[in-house]
Automatic annotation (TrEMBL):
UniProt family annotation: Belongs to the BA14k family.
Molecular functions per Gene Ontology: carbohydrate binding
Record InterPro entries: BA14K (IPR012413)
Protein name according to UniProt: Lectin-like protein BA14k
Source organism superkingdom: Bacteria
Length: 142
């Protein structure tokens, strides 16, 4: 409001200085009309500027002391860790098969010795070896 009063007083003072210079006899002059228009424009600009420069007051709650409150952290469930499940495979059941032997009796120490020396994939528990076809074959010594 203080600026408005200052602007209004200055406008009135400017008008008081300029207006008495125009006499009634000179009112019909065309150049004086331009001067009066300029004075009016300046006066209007000053008053409009004073009105527009008024501070705007907003109602904001006043606190004696501002306190920062940390927001609650958001909790994210951790991603599950991939753990492969164990794969259970049924073990093949080996039957003891009567094999026609060519010299050595199956399950004897000589037979074990012969098969383990002849076949690198020989399994002494089942008496088989893995052939080139990928299948298990019973060892026939002879």
């Amino acid at each position: 409001m203080n600026k408005f009063i200052k602007a209004a007083v200055l406008s009135v003072a400017a008008a008081a200085v300029v207006l008495p210079t125009f006499g009634t006899a000179q009112a019909g002059d065309h150049d004086d009309a331009w001067a009066a228009g300029a004075v009016g424009l300046v006066t209007g600009t000053l008053i409009g500027g004073a009105i527009a420069s008024q501070p705007r007051y907003y109602s904001e709650p006043v606190y004696s002391q501002r306190v920062y409150v940390d927001p609650e952290p958001e909790y994210y469930e951790p991603r599950p860790v991939y753990q492969p499940r164990p794969v259970y495979q049924a073990r093949p059941v080996y039957r003891r098969v009567a094999v026609e032997s060519y010299g050595l009796e199956p399950w004897t120490p000589a037979w074990y010795r012969y098969c383990s020396q002849r076949y690198r994939s020989f399994d002494p528990d089942s008496g088989t070896f893995v052939g080139y076809d990928g299948r298990s074959h019973f060892c026939t010594a002879g």
